[in-house]
Amino acid sequence: MIEAPPRETVDLQQMGRQAKAAAVELAQCSTTQKNEALLAIAESLDAGRAEILAVNAEEMAAAREAGTDELYIRDRLNLERRMDNVIADLRQVAELPDPVGERFDAREPRDGLRAWKQRTPLGVLGVIYEARPQVTVDVAALALKTGNAVILRGGREVLRSNMALVRALSGAMQRVGLPAAAFQYIASSDRALVGELLRMHRYVDMIIPRGGNGLHNFCRENSTIPVITGGIGICHLYVEPGADLDSALQVIHNSKTVSPAVCNALDTLLVHRDVARAFLPRVVDCLGDANVAFRAEPRALACVSADERVSPAGPEDFDTEWYALTLGLKVVDSLDEAIAHIRAHSTQHSDGILTRDMASAERFCNEVDSAAVYVNASTRFTDGSALGLGAEIAVSTQKLHARGPMALTELTTYKWVVVGEGHVRL
């Protein structure tokens, strides 16, 4: 059994120094070395699966005893249901192209003078996240492939699970001759350590918070290090009159019910008035069988008023990321109104249209300014693995540096390389 060390053993400054040194070493590693390390980590996790899952089971039991919602435990604490995918993602990342060293935007500004941009690692990442122990491995995999070191701080509910994972990660790194300090975990639930991490600009190059609005705001307001935020998703789907309603129903069901406590789950369904009376009862019947409850504005409520699973929407309901089997319903008069509602209430994460009118689809894609915009597809695809990127470190809803699932390319920056033949500028 892995016990959390006491607060006084956590020396963040020392962790920062070690991470900086590890990042320098990782930046010089070949693609082959990094891929071998990724495969070694996959083998280490597979070999240590029983111990890791035993610790995770104890933490889930403790969460149940404390009265934690079972859906939250299933979607955010349970590692067993994801372990196979976690290991598979490591192997997939090993197969992906290495962006480090890639040359692009080449030019010849003067005769014989050549210049290009070349991708390099960011350096040291500070990743702060709540629950979801699989994030520990996702972050480590992407950081390793891109030559970055990382300091991790996860949620207290799965602290021991995360420590078990990091022990497997570090052991694999040592076995292949790479620095174990590439992955370091803040083994304490003391929140003061988060504030200290946010001020370690001497060692840490980027902060990536994954959690609720409170965590994101705290990082933005207290960090002396660049912060890239995302993962807050109030997600919408809009159903047009000419949509294939059978297909639309399947997309809506998938977007809402498969993993309701994740950031790309559907929160609000907008339905055009011409199909609302026929379609909304079907939505309630289909999703209601999956234990979804509904919050409907007056016109939507009138379409399904006799159904006890539907209640009137409150003033804040369309600004709520549910993280639960709850769905907002609204009837709109036009594509214009649907887009206006999304602009007013979306967090610019994942929003989509269900239609057979490609002119409407094109307009929706052009005018809805979200990190991921969908046409006739589930919002659940806003995910690094689902989009073929391997794992992901976060879903960014910002507009600077990276947007959407942050995978390998997004964990690099670039430098200019200029090659001349004794060139001088007059």
Estimate nothing, just give the exact number of structural domains: 2
Mean pLDDT over the residues: 94
- Highest-level CATH class of the largest domain: Alpha Beta
- Our count of helices gives 14
Structural class: alpha/beta
Give helix % range: 40-55%
Q: What is the CATH superfamily of the largest domain?
A: Aldehyde Dehydrogenase, Chain A, domain 1
The outline comes out as: globular
Radius of gyration: 24 Å
Structure in a nutshell:
This protein has 426 residues and is α/β, with parallel strands linked by helices. Helices cover 40% and strands 20% of the residues. Residues 1-8 have low confidence and may be disordered.
Model description:
- The chain is an alpha/beta fold and 426 residues long.
- It has two domains: 242 residues, 3-Layer(aba) Sandwich (Aldehyde Dehydrogenase, Chain A, domain 1), CATH 3.40.605.10; 147 residues, 3-Layer(aba) Sandwich (Aldehyde Dehydrogenase, Chain A, domain 2).
- Helix content is 40%, strand content 20%.
- The chain is built from 14 helices and 16 strands.
- The strands form four sheets. It has a seven-stranded parallel β-sheet, sandwiched between helices. It has a four-stranded parallel β-sheet with strand order 5-4-3-6, with helices on both faces. A three-stranded antiparallel β-sheet has the order 1-2-16, with no helix packed on it.
- β9, α12 and β10 form a beta-alpha-beta unit.
- α2 crosses α7, α3 packs antiparallel against α7 and α5 runs parallel beside α6.
- The longest helix has 17 residues.
- The radius of gyration is 24 Å and the shape is globular.
- The termini are far apart.
